[in-house]
Write a structure and sequence with these properties.
single chain; mainly alpha
């Protein structure tokens, strides 16, 4: 019986996420990796563990088609990291209530989503968007915070 390969280190996960999202930008036109780094920093500031830090780097990878579900299935990541990434991956047409319920029932996912929402709702980040987009996203993020039981 052979031993499983060692898990990816956090620097390896970061490099992989940066490469997977290379060329992608956020709604403000900034390199997408800046968002991933900010979410990872938010997880670290909230005393997240290595599984949560890895998930922070990968939280949008499957949803944004930067990596596939098949890749995630076989990746050298802990089962907990994979579960958090899956919990944070929104499905097309999925109601926000279902998405929130999955996050709330997946150990470790709420802290990562809290860091994600904090960066998404950063006033400096929202300020560069047009008014209609800014208002729509502000409402969307506030609703998700409420569904997750996070303070406004």
């Amino acid at each position: 019986m052979s031993n499983p390969p060692p898990l990816l280190t956090l620097p390896e996960v970061e490099a992989l996420a940066r490469a997977a999202h290379a060329g992608q930008t956020d709604k403000a036109g900034r390199p997408y990796a800046e968002h991933l780094a900010a979410v990872a920093a938010g997880v670290r500031a909230r005393d997240g563990d290595p599984d949560q830090l890895a998930a922070a780097w990968l939280h949008d990878a499957v949803e944004d088609h930067a990596l596939t579900e098949e890749w995630l299935d076989t990746a050298a990541l802990s089962p907990r990291t994979k579960a958090v990434v899956r919990a944070l991956t929104k499905h097309p047409g999925e109601p926000p209530e279902s998405y929130a319920r999955r996050i709330l029932t997946t150990p470790g996912a709420l802290l990562v989503k809290e860091a994600d929402l904090a960066h998404n709702a950063d006033p400096a980040r929202l300020a560069v968007l047009d008014g209609a987009t800014r208002d729509r996203l502000t409402e969307k993020y506030a609703r998700m915070r409420a569904l997750l039981g996070l303070p406004a």
